[in-house]
Amino acid sequence: MSQRYRATASLHNRSALLPEYTTPPSSGRSSPFGLQANGQRFADDLEGQNDEHLEGLQAKVKLLKDITIGIGNEVRESTVQLSQMNDAFSETSGILAGTFRRMNNMAARQGCRWLWYIVFLTIVFWFFIFVWWFRR
């Protein structure tokens, strides 16, 4: 175990492992371009990368904002459409209620004769369907 520890301790010394290798400046980035005083080029590179990332994030935020505005518009339009549908169904319900009321009044005045007419028409309808079906 102690040999292993000594081996890893010697691995941490870069100059012992790679004598011709020069360590990069303190910024942690190496560059093929020449160095300026105090690592200014590396700071400029990092600043440029930060600006690129910031522009990317701003574009994503704008996209999310557009999506949420679109969702809000869709919700408002759907609410209006549902309100109109509710009004239309209420109107239709009133019309059907009036129609059924008039039909019941008519049926009460005529007695049961209308029932026999409906039964007769239903039998005739099914007869025509039966004949048409077997004629094909």
Class based on secondary structure composition and strand pairing: mainly alpha
Q: Mean pLDDT, rounded to whole units?
A: 79
N-to-C series of helices and strands: HHHH
Percent of residues in helices comes to: over 70%
Termini separation (Å)?
95 Å
Instruction: Identify low-pLDDT runs.
Output: none
Subcellular location: Endomembrane system; Golgi apparatus membrane
Transmembrane segments: 114-134
Protein name: t-SNARE coiled-coil homology domain-containing protein
Keywords: Golgi apparatus, Membrane, Protein transport, Transmembrane, Transmembrane helix, Transport
Spell out the key features of this protein:
elongated; 4 helices; about 140 residues; single chain; about 0% strand; mainly alpha
Structural commentary:
This protein is mostly helical. The protein is 79% helix and 0% strand. The protein has 4 helices and no strands. It has helices spanning 2-11, 14-17, 40-110, 113-135. The protein is elongated and about 105 Å long. The N and C termini lie far apart (95 Å). The mean pLDDT is 79. Residues 44-106 form the T-SNARE coiled-coil homology domain. It is found in: Endomembrane system; Golgi apparatus membrane. This is t-SNARE coiled-coil homology domain-containing protein.
